[in-house]
Design brief:
Blueprint lengths: L4 H14 L4 H6 E8 L7 E3 H15 E14 L2 E12 L12 E13 L2 E9 L1 H8 L3
Parallel strand pairs: 1-6
Antiparallel strand pairs: 1-2, 3-4, 4-5, 5-6
Length: 137
């Protein structure tokens, strides 16, 4: 695995989200990683276990995750990605019955990397479209 911040961010999306290889959560994220913006609030999720809870909740509600990294840029220990996510609402984990709908949302992820692992992340993504499409709002 390359050690540039941009390459590590690409690996994160490829291994964890696209391939669903959850063992890469602990391999790519630092043990004390701090991630903001997963749920749309200012809440900070700490550690791989904290991220894993969000990941498991998403997979309880949705399947067929596909991410396209529209742009990835990196400079030193920082990297950013603009992405498009396609997924299908197949579970009741979001608090509404599964609709079977395919949904497309966009977002951005920014990370800081040290010693080849993600130590901090910030996310901004279109949760409103997702929630509207599944009938939650």
């Amino acid at each position: 695995m390359s050690d540039t911040a941009a390459d590590i961010l690409r690996q994160w999306f490829q291994r964890v989200w696209i391939e669903g290889k959850t063992e890469y959560i602990e391999a790519i994220a630092a043990p004390d990683v701090r991630i903001q913006g997963l749920d749309g609030s200012t809440h900070v999720t700490t550690g791989a276990a904290g991220f894993r809870a969000f990941y498991d909740q998403m997979h309880a509600s949705f399947s067929e995750f596909d991410f396209t990294l529209d742009d990835v840029i990196g400079a030193g220990p920082a990297a950013a990605a603009r992405w498009t996510m396609r997924l299908r609402h197949t579970g009741d984990g979001a608090g509404v019955p599964a609709s079977g709908k395919s949904i497309t949302v966009t977002g951005m992820t920014f990370v800081r990397v040290a010693d080849g692992r993600i130590t901090a992340g910030w996310n901004e993504w279109d949760r409103t479209t997702l929630l509207r499409e599944i009938g939650a709002i």
